[in-house]
Design a protein that fits this description.
alpha/beta; Arginase, Chain A; 2 domains; eight-stranded parallel sheet; two-stranded parallel ribbon; 17 helices; 10 strands; about 10% strand; binds N-{4-[(3-aminopropyl)amino]butyl}acetamide; binds zinc ion
Length: about 500
C-alpha cells in the first residue's frame, strides 16, 4: 500500500473576522491559501491523491458535541453582524462569521474523509488542510478559533466504524488541545499526547489540567500525556528529546492501530503565539518518527500556525515526508534546555505507574553510581521492551545529535521470528538520518529477515511489535549505566531529577 492523500477545499478560506479583535486577527484565510500554494509550487500537491470533500453530517458532529451546542451554531448563518458579536462573547478567543458553520462542517468532513481513505487502504497516509481548527472546541463550547473538534470526532468515528481499540492522537500544536483531553480523559482506547506552551499556567488557556499531572481519569488514567513547556524558545533538540524520552516509548508500548496528528505549526519558529525556535524541518522528522507506528496509518490534520512563511514551510516538510521523500538535514541537534529536561522528567515520573517503559526511573538514579559496565543485556533480545528503550532513549538520541552523512547498519544474527520486527523498526527509524541513506549489512540471514528488512529499507512502515512487556530491571540498569557514561558528550541523553512541584504532587 502506498500513496498520500491531500484533502483540501478552497471553500474553507471563505470566512474571516468581521470586526476588530487583536486576539483573533491572526486566524486568517491566508493561512490555508499560503499552505496550499506552497504545496503546489513545490510540486507536492500533484504527487498526492486528492479526494472530493463533503460536509460532516449532524450525526457525526454529535459524536463529540451536544445537541444544544449544534443547534446554537446552526443558527449563526442567519445572525446579523451585531448578533454574531454577541453570540461570540459567550466563548473564549473565537469569532463567528455567517459562513463559519458551513466551513466547520467541511473541516470535520475532510478529517473523516482522510481517516476513511487511510483505514480502507486507498492511501497509506495523508494530510487535511482545514479551517476552522478543532482541538480547543468542547462538547458545549467553541474556543480558541475552533468550532467543532475535527480530530476528536474523527477518532470516535474511526473507533465506531473500524472497531479500533487503540488510537494515538499526537498534538504538536503549541496550545493545549483541552477539548481533545476532555473528550477522551476517561477513555483508555484513545491515547492523547500534547505538548504546549504553559509557563507555569501563565499562558492561555491557563488551565491546571494542562499540567504534567493531568494523566486522565478512571479507566483512562495514564492515557492522557501532557508535556508543559515552562519557557519559550524551545528548539529542535527539545522537541526531539520529548519524542525520544516520552512520546515514542509510550507510543511503541501502546501499539496504536491508527495515529492522528493535531498538527498545529504555531510550535515553529517565528510564530506570534508560540515564541518557540524549532525549525520547519523538525516537522519532517516528527512525521517520520510517527510513520512506523500503526502500519503507517497516519492522518495529519491542520490546527494552528500563524506565521505565514513558517507555516507554509512546515506544511511542505510534513507532506514531503508523508510522501516518503528523504528527511531534511537538521542543523545542530544538541542538548535540550534545563526547563525541557525538567518537564520531561516530571512527565516520565508521573506516568511511571502507567507505562512499563518508565518503570525503572527511580531505581536508575540510585544505580548509576554503582554500575558502569558496558551495555550488555543479560536477557539479550528476548527482552524486547528493553531493546526498544535502548533504541529510543540511547541510540536514536545520539544518532540524531551526531547527524551522520550515511548510516551503516550491521546486523549480526537476525534469525528468530521475534527479532525481525525489531530490526525492521530500527531500520525504519534510522532512515530519518542521513537523508535516508542507509546501508544494511546482514551477516547471517533467513528469507524472513531479508524480506522484513528489505520492506523497511524500501520505505514500508515498520511492522507492529505487539505487546512489549515490562523491561527487565537488570537490562534497564545496564542501559542507565551506559547513558551515564555517555551523557557528558551527548546533550540528548541528559536527564534531571524531578522538580519540587512533582515532589509536592507525589506526596501521599
Ligand atoms: N496570546 C489554535 O492554535 N489566543 N488556537 C491566545 C494569547 C487563543 C489558538 C491569546 C489562541 C487560540 C488552534
Ligand atoms: Zn495553537
Amino acid at each position: 500500500m502506498s500513496g498520500s492523500a491531500l484533502i483540501y477545499d478552497k471553500e474553507m478560506t471563505r470566512y474571516k473576522l468581521l470586526w476588530t479583535d487583536p486576539v483573533c486577527e491572526i486566524e486568517t484565510p491566508e493561512r490555508l491559501m499560503v499552505s496550499y500554494e506552497a504545496l503546489k509550487s513545490k510540486g507536492l500537491e500533484q504527487r498526492c491523491e486528492s479526494f472530493p470533500i463533503r460536509e460532516a453530517t449532524e450525526e457525526e458532529i454529535l459524536l463529540a458535541h451536544s445537541k444544544e451546542y449544534l443547534e446554537a451554531v446552526k443558527q449563526t448563518p442567519h445572525l446579523s453582524l451585531e448578533e454574531l458579536r454577541t453570540f461570540t462573547q459567550q466563548y473564549s478567543d473565537v469569532y463567528f462569521h455567517p459562513n463559519i458553520y458551513h466551513c466547520a462542517k467541511m473541516a470535520v468532513g475532510a478529517t473523516i474523509q482522510l481517516v476513511d481513505n487511510v483505514m480502507t487502504g486507498k492511501v497509506r497516509n495523508g494530510m487535511a488542510l482545514v479551517r476552522p481548527p478543532g482541538h480547543h472546541s468542547q462538547r458545549n463550547a467553541a474556543n480558541g478559533f475552533c468550532v467543532f473538534n475535527n480530530v476528536a470526532i474523527a477518532a470516535v468515528h474511526a473507533k465506531n466504524h473500524y472497531n479500533l481499540s487503540r488510537i494515538l492522537i499526537v498534538d504538536w500544536d503549541i496550545h493545549h488541545g483541552q477539548g481533545v483531553q476532555y473528550c477522551f480523559e476517561e477513555d483508555p482506547s484513545v491515547l492523547y499526547f500534547s505538548w504546549h506552551r504553559y509557563e507555569h499556567r501563565s499562558f492561555w488557556p491557563y488551565l491546571a489540567e494542562s499540567d504534567f499531572d493531568g494523566v486522565g481519569k478512571g479507566k483512562g488514567a495514564g492515557f492522557n500525556i501532557n508535556l508543559p513547556w515552562n519557557k519559550v524558545g524551545m528548539t529542535n533538540s527539545d522537541y526531539l528529546y520529548a519524542f525520544f524520552q516520552v512520546l515514542l516509548p509510550v507510543a511503541y508500548e501502546f501499539d496504536p492501530e491508527l495515529v492522528l496528528i493535531c498538527a498545529g505549526f504555531d510550535s515553529a519558529i517565528g510564530d506570534p503565539e508560540g515564541h518557540m525556535c524549532a525549525s520547519p524541518e523538525i516537522f519532517g522528522h516528527l512525521t517520520h518518527l510517527l510513520m512506523s507506528l500503526a502500519k503507517g496509518r497516519l492522518c495529519v490534520v491542520l490546527e494552528g500556525g500563524y506565521n505565514m512563511s513558517s507555516l507554509a514551510q512546515s506544511v511542505c516538510q510534513t507532506v514531503q515526508t508523508l510522501l516518503g521523500d528523504p528527511t531534511p538535514v537538521l542543523a545542530s541537534v544538541g542538548s535540550p534546555c534545563h526547563s525541557a529536561l525538567e518537564s520531561v522528567q516530571n512527565v516520565r515520573a508521573v506516568h511511571q505507574n502507567y507505562w512499563n517503559c518508565f518503570k525503572h526511573i527511580g531505581e536508575q538514579e540510585l544505580l548509576c553510581v554503582r554500575s558502569l559496565s558496558f551495555l550488555h543485556f543479560p536477557q539479550g533480545l528476548h527482552d524486547r521492551a528493553s531493546v526498544m528503550q535502548a533504541v529510543l532513549c540511547l541510540l536514536l538520541p545520539m544518532a540524531y545529535e551526531f547527524d551522520p552523512g550515511l548510516v551503516v547498519q550491521v546486523l549480526g544474527k537476525c534469525n528468530s521470528k521475534q527479532e525481525v520486527p525489531i530490526w525492521a523498526q530500527l531500520t525504519s527509524l534510522l532512515q530519518g538520518l542521513a537523508q535516508g541513506k542507509t546501508l544494511a549489512l546482514l551477516q547471517v540471514s533467513t528469507d524472513m529477515a531479508r524480506a522484513g528488512l528489505w520492506a523497511s529499507l524500501s520505505g514500508s512502515p515498520g511492522p507492529s511489535l505487539g505487546p512489549l512487556g515490562t523491561p527487565l530491571a537488570e537490562n534497564m540498569e545496564a542501559l542507565e549505566a551506559q547513558r551515564q557514561r555517555l551523557k557528558s558528550q551527548w546533550g540528548l541523553l541528559l536527564k534531571t531529577g524531578v522538580s519540587s512541584i512533582f515532589n509536592d504532587f507525589a506526596k501521599p
